[in-house]
Each structure stands twice: as C-alpha cells, then as structure tokens.
Amino acid sequence: MAIAGCVPALMLLANADEHANPVLGLVGFGLAIVAAAFILGWIGEAAELDLSGGLAVGILALVAILPEYVVSIYFSFAAGSDPAMVEYATANLTGANRIVQGFGWPIVALIAYFSVKAVRARKAGNKKEFGIQLESDTRADVGFLILGSLVMLVVPAVGSMHLLVGVALVVVYCVYLWRISGSSREEPELEGTAAYVGALPKWGRRIFILSMLVVSATVIFLSAHPFGDSLIEAGKSLNIDEYILVQWLAPVASEAPEFTLAFLFAARGKEAAALAILISSKLNQWTLLAGSMPIAYVIGGGENAALPVDSRGAEELWLTTAQTLLGVAILLTLRWGITPSILMLGLFLVSVYPDEYFRNILGVVHIVLAGVYFYVNRHLIKPTLRAPFSKPKV
Hints:
The protein is an all-alpha fold. Helix content is 75%, strand content 3%.
C-alpha cells in the first residue's frame, strides 16, 4: 500500500510537461512523501537488527527525518537564486520543530497517562505521581539541544543565518554522533510491518532493506521540488497563506510515520522509548537540518554566505528557540509529566495564531517560564552541559 501511494507522484512526474492542478500536485506529491516516510520508518527499525551501537540509532534517526530534510533544503537551495523563496526557507524548519516538541512530546505523555495500564494502576490505588522517566544517557541529548539553541539565538538577533552558524550546528550534530557511537543498546523489539521485515532471512532482509531505501529515498528526492512548488501554488489558488501551508502542512506529512511509531509505543507502555524517539528527532532537526540550510543556500548561489531571514522568519525562529529552551529546562530532571505536557501543548496551540506582536510576546513568555525551570533545576545545569562530552554508559 505504501509503494502504491508513491505511484500518483510518479505519474505526475511523467506528465511534467502538462500544467497540473496545484492542489492535485499537493495531494499526489504529499502522499508520496508520507508513503516513502513510512517505508523509511519500517526498514529503519528492522535495520537495527544488523547494526550495533548508539551510532546506529543516530543514523537511523537521521534517515527518519529525510523527508523533512529534503523539503527544507529544497527551499533553502532555491532561495539562493530566487529571493521569493527566502521567506519559505525557515517556515518548514520552525513548523517541524514546534510540532515535534509542542505537540509530539505532550501527546506521548497524555496517551501514556490515559492508557489501560495507567488507568488500572490508578484504580488499584497507586497514587504515585505520573511521569515519564528517561534514561540517564538522555541527559546528553538535552545538553546538545541547549548548545544548539544557544547557537540559534544568534539568527533572529542578526536577521540572517550565516554559513558559520550552519557549520557550528553541523559540528554540534557530528559531536552528537561521536558521543552516542559508544553507547550500547538493547536488542530492538520490532512490531507491525517492521517485524515482518525483520523476520526475513538475514541476507534477504538486508537486500530488501537496501532496495526499499533506494526506492523511498528516490521518491522523496524526486517529489521534494514539485511538492514545495505545489504548496505555494495551492496556497495562492485557494487563497490560503502559503507560509502557513509550508510551515504546518509539510511537516505534518513528513512527521506522520514518526508520530505514529511514538504514539503506538506510548499506548503499549513504552512511553520512555516513545519520548526518546521524538527527542532525538528534535535534536536532528535543530542541529543538522538547521545547519544545512545556509550551506544549501550558498550552494544554490546565495550571496554574502548568509541565508537572509525576514522579519516573520526571525519571529518564528525566536519563538521556536524559546520553546526549545523551555522544553530542555523541564527535561533537566529527565522526567516528563502531565503538568508540563499540558503547558507545552497549550502554548503550542496558541502559537499557531499568525500575529507578529503575539509571537514576540509568546516568545518572551516561553523564555520567562524557561528561566523559572532553569532556576528550580539549576543544580542539574552543569552536569547536563558536561554530558555531551562525557563518556557514554555502556
């Protein structure tokens, strides 16, 4: 079914000379990206059987955000030769990051809280306060998110994303890969489609995974350009703000498989693993994805070695950075409960309101709340900042 979902996009590409309806293109290419993303998610899980070490987890997380990565890089690359694309370059990045943290993290906790297992425990008289307890090694991820946020604070302040900022973020991600390369992990517990792939004979599985990787990656790369153009043209034809479509619709499509996996894990009592998946996704997007954008802009012919950021982009990046800092301030305890989930979800829902003054005020609200959490958990700041450079537990 997923492979079949890629066919309409291939048909549209075969008839590229004809002027297709932008809404039809949006649906066709969007469906292909969602379908290919599901394929990547399934084979990525199954591939863990043939890979070892924490580095494999980082690489698989990178594969999972490939759809998001390709779409964002397309807009950044196109902005190098077409100034009209500049405003869309940061839209996809900010939307993807805010959805993962503002929607994904809280929903995982809420699903776990209302799961059958949790409800039965409360009915049995277990009055223990609910909270998702993360593994101690997750502290390094939180530390990397803080480092990435400190780098990103420069962008809205100067009104551009310089090539040096991009390089710094990519370096942060490379250090992250180095850090987790020594981490150990348990044998993966595969479920659903991934379990069927994992049950194949060893070499049959590897050939199948490699083949599907090539197919899905090819579909995503071929669909990224027309999908981005269809988003903009569909917005114009439907009288919908194109920026809104790029910021929210594209990330929802590409994040669907990852959210599905995380929410299923949470429903099955694996809420810590579910939250860890989305934290890793956030880290990948906030470092490697963001850092690659100015690099793509320069390769695309951009001038001054800096991706321009207009006033709206600066506001969105400011709000996204503030949201990130609030999230990591809460995660300093490595515990994620219902109260922060409701807080984060509520702030995310109101942040969708498209008003310049409101976005700036909301960013300040996030920073003030982050300051409160940082102060309360101040004894955990130093160990968290040291964690990215400490030896991982084996």
